[in-house]
Write a structure and sequence with these properties.
With about 290 residues, the protein is an alpha/beta fold. Helices cover about 40% and strands about 20% of the residues. It contains eleven helices and ten strands. The protein has helices at about 5-15, 65-70, 95-100, 120-130, 135-145, 165-175, 195-210, 220-225, 245-250, 255-270, 275-285, and strands at about 25-35, 40-50, 55, 80-85, 85-90, 105, 180-185, 210-215, 230-235, 235-240. A six-stranded mixed beta sheet has the order 6-7-8-3-9-10, sandwiched between helices. Helix 4 (about 120-130) crosses helix 5, helix 4 (about 120-130) runs parallel beside helix 6 (about 165-175) and helix 5 (about 135-145) packs across helix 6 (about 165-175). Bound molecules: adenosine-5'-triphosphate and magnesium ion. Adenosine-5'-triphosphate (ATP) binds near residues 38, 40, 61 and 62.
């Protein structure tokens, strides 16, 4: 799959009219969330600007998925507020379905409907919720499936597709609603290694085309090359954020350093680690 300028321009055409680069798309203030007595988000403040790709990294259990789920209104907050393009979406009586159309989300597990062909997975919400006529929905869905490189699979069922193809269909499905921002939660983590690249390329092209994106990932190369900003989360707090090279190469906080050291060690010198050492390292971290 190539990413020519032409390709990027075609994707750009399908996105909502770009706002100015510094318009605030998402603002979150003082987000707190517990599950029982487990405090998972401990006062998160966040700003995402238009056309920005914000990459969130952090250890397992630090609250990354919960944060994305709160922004998508899949979890109610205990306290704090969230605004989308200046409108508070955590206020009482908000049109949740309307908000979710503007905030696309893609998960680790693709969650495609197994009994629907790829194209029907993509058109379903637009036809049901937006009442888009079938012909128009299918035309747009085919364009989107072509953008993510799976046009020839439009009439296949999910089980006939590879994981990477299914995940690209899931991305096309989220784009169908013309979201103003896209949330990605470890969308390559369930894929075989050789399929990770094709999904990252689609995300990179989306970022290049000007989509506003919040990306939770362990793919440090993606964070470095595509992220405008990297944010490190630990124990429900934002520990550190900044330009990718600063956070990844010159982290200020000890916790960030330990996390990155551990990720690198796991990636590069697995053969030197015994399971006991790995667990000790992890427990020392926690
Ligand atoms: N629906 C839920 N009910 C109860 N506890 C939950 C629920 N969702 C998440 N948690 C807990 O909240 C904490 C944060 O979970 P979360 O999934 O947000 O972490 P994460 O940073 O995404 O981790 P990972 O990298 O493993 O995906 C964990 O302790 C988890 O067990
Ligand atoms: Mg998670």
């Amino acid at each position: 799959m190539s990413s020519t300028g032409e390709e990027v321009a075609r994707i750009a055409e399908m996105l909502p009219a770009p706002d100015s680069r510094d318009a605030v798309v998402i603002r979150a203030e003082g987000i707190r969330k517990s599950f029982g007595d487990n405090l998972v988000l401990d006062g998160i403040d966040l700003v995402v600007h238009g056309r920005e790709t914000l990459v969130i990294i952090g250890p397992s259990g630090s609250g990354k998925s919960t944060l994305l789920r709160c922004i998508n209104l899949l979890e109610p907050l205990d306290s704090g507020r969230i605004w989308l393009e200046g409108e508070e979406i955590t206020r009482k009586g908000v049109d949740v379905s309307g908000v979710r159309q503007q905030i696309g989300i893609v998960f680790q597990q693709f969650n495609l409907f197994p009994h629907l062909r790829a194209i029907d997975n993509v058109t379903l919400a637009a036809r049901r919720i937006k009442r888009m006529p079938r012909a128009e929905a299918e035309r747009r869905a085919l364009e989107l499936l072509a953008r993510v490189g799976v046009a020839e699979k439009a009439h296949q069922y999910p089980q006939q597709l590879s994981g990477g193809q299914q995940q690209r269909v899931a991305i096309a499905r989220a784009l169908m609603m013309e979201p103003h921002v896209m949330l990605f939660d470890e969308v390559t983590s369930a894929l075989d290694p050789e399929l990770v690249g094709e999904v990252l390329i689609v995300m990179r092209d989306l970022a290049l085309a000007g989509m506003t994106m919040l990306v939770v990932t362990h793919e440090m190369q993606f964070a470095r090359e595509v992220g405008d900003r990297v944010l490190f989360m630990d124990e429900g707090r934002l520990v550190e954020q900044g330009a990718p090279a600063d956070v990844l190469d010159r982290p200020k906080e000890e916790r960030t350093r330990r996390f990155l050291r551990r990720s690198l060690q796991m990636a590069h010198s697995l053969e030197d680690l015994t399971i006991t050492e790995a667990i000790e390292e992890r427990e020392g971290f926690e």
